[in-house]
Structures are given as C-alpha cells and as structure tokens.
Amino acid sequence: MSMPNETELHAYLDGELSNEAREQVEHWLASDPAAADRAETYRQQKLALQQLFHPVLDEALPPRLQALASAPAKPRWLPTWSLQRLAASVAIAIGSAALGWFGHAFYRPPPQFAQSLPLPHQAAVAHVVFSPDVRRPVEISAEHEDQLVTWLSKRLGTPVRPPKLASAGFELIGGRLLPGNSGPVAQFMYHDASGQRLTLYVSTENTGNRDTAFRFAQEGPVNVFYWIDGKFGYALSAGIPKDQLARVATAVYDQLDKQ
Amino acid sequence: MDSHALLAELPRLRRYARALIGDRAAADDLVQDTLERAWSRSGQWRAGNELRTWLFAIMHNLRIDQLRKQPPPLQPIDDEHGELPTRATQSDGIELADLAAALGQLPEEQRAVLLLVGVEEMSYAEVASSLGIPAGTVMSRLARGRERLRALMNGVTSAKHLRVVR
Question: Disulfide-capable partner of A219 in A124, A129, A143, A163 (CB 3.0 to 4.6 Å)?
Fold first, then answer.
C-alpha cells in the first residue's frame, strides 16, 4: 500500500494497525493538517461517546435483569405468559395482604434469596408445571422409592428422603430433579384420595444459615408453605386451603425434624 | 454458561442497548430478551469463545428482528424542517446532549459500529463477529458514521454560533 486512506485513519485511532502502517499514518498526518484535524475530531468524538454512555455502567441493575443473569432463573420450559400471570398474581397477593390483617407476616422473601427467585415462587412454578401432568408427573415413581432416594441424594449431594404423609391423607407419587437458582433441587409429588396433588420442593442452596419459621405465600391459585432449615429450603405447594396445607406442612416438618 | 460471567457482561449490554436505542425501557427490554435467548441457547455457546461477542451477536439478531417488525421510524426533525429551540450555552452537558441527538440521526447500522468500536472498545474482528458482517464492512460503516457524526456536530455548532452572534 502506498498512501494511507481514510479507513486507515480510523484503524490508526482504534489501535488496529501494525507498527509499520501506524508509522505511515503518522507520517501522513504530520504532513497533512486537514487530515490531522479530522483525526483529532474523531478522537474527541470517540472520547465524548464514552463519556456520554459511561454512566450507564454505574447504574443499579434492574432486578428483572439481575434475576435473569444469576441463573437460568426462569425455567426454560415455561411459557412466558404463565410466568407473567404468576408474577401478576404475586403482586395481587402482596397487595391484598398489605390491606389485610395478615399483612406484615405475609410473603417476605428472606434476604439470602434477594438475588434470585424466591423459594416459594420457584416451588409454585414447579408445582404449576408438573402437577397437572397426567402421564409423566414425576421422573421416578413411588414404586421405585429406593432408587428415587438414592438418585436425588446423589445429585443434591446430601441425603434427601420424601416424608410419609399418609397421616395427612397424602400418598407419594414420586419425584424429580429440577434446576434451582444455582444447582439441582428435588421435587416430591403426592396425591390424596380425590386426586388433589401436592408437591414438596427441597432446595439445598441456602447459604444464609438463617432458619425461619413457617412462612406462607400465595402464588395465584397455589398456596405455599415454606421454611428454611440450615442449608435446606422446603416449600410445600398445593391448590388446597391454607389451613389444610398448614396441617400437611406440620406433618412434613415433624418428620424431617426426626431424621 | 457461567452466570457470574454473564452478570459481569450485563452492564455493558445495557450500555450498548441504551446507546443504540436511546430509550431506557426499550433498551432494558432488549437486554432481557437477550438474556432469555442466551439461556435458551446456552448449549450453542462453547467455553473458550468470547462470551461478550456471543451475547452481543444475540442482541444484534434480536434487534434486527425488532426492526423488521417495527414500522419505519419517523424522520428526525432537522434544521431544514425548522429550527429547534436550543440554548446557546457551551457547557459539556449540552454538547453531550447534542452528541446524543446527532448519534440518533445516524443510520442504525453505522451507529452500531460506532458504539461497539468507540464505546465498547471491541476490535474490528469482534465487531464483525458480533454483527455478522465482514471486517471491511465494519471499517467502511465506521468511517461513514464518524464522518456523518462530525458533520452533524459541526452543523449544531455553527447553528449555535449564529444564534450567539444574532
């Protein structure tokens, strides 16, 4: 190449040239004041653009984006509309709770979940997705409970076992492995004599080390009791009345406590 | 795909989207769509490849889809169509506002290259890969875009100058 051209002027400014080509451009600029003037304008333009948009980097990330970055927080197999509907119903639940007598104790995500989807929400979504499934509600059925326990314990890296809820009128259907905020979680599914399904969501992702008492959340048609016990987070979800669900939650809690 | 690495790229994705589109809410919507598509296609990303380039490519393709669905944008009002009220001050803030307005008048394909090279400080090769165009096209769009922006800013400055004199 002989004379550097306009394209090389830009490549020069952007540090894209070899040493030899850079020297050629510098030589050109030294002898052509108009070109040197343009180069200086482009250089300042580049700096001004950086200055103009740099402040965006320091803005707090909107929670909806942060949640999407922290993990495959939004289950990929879930259509957008149903998430939106769930979100809308959470908003309604929070709104009506604020008005109601139960307000302050209602749905308050523990701080350790601040950067990801709250446990009751995840559990409710998982419930809504799998419990209506007639043919394959679980991956391993209750007939192979030993396999289920071995597999899930291995994948979660800690012993997990489905509690027996016959006293509360519920029988185990089976369980499955699901993606949580940062790793695997387990879901056990039960049904009662009328076919009403109930799921127990077991997460081992809790790093907050803060145990909690029972908390209650309502996600659309799904009621959720949840609590934190060491690294475990448990959430019991079903479309049954709150007091009935509370009795089952107590039965679950009592058994886990004895394990 | 590592969520920490993804989180680290988020501010840049937001900055680029904001600079490209202008509107904050629309830009964040584009970033959100990008993240969703990235997760749904995380199998296509191979460790070792530049995550940033891959994410910007996803965002670019989504943006192209958006533009195809959208009606063509309204013509910006420029000096030929009547004077816009501007204050005859020379502070940095006003100049940056002028720059943002002038940037908005560039064709989007030129604006994209200008921002990826100038603000995101990508190499020409990275820009080519993100936008799916040859490096030569990156260079020609860059040269045309910068020259156009310079002309627009000169127009603003001289218009201002006239007002000051008057």
Answer: A124
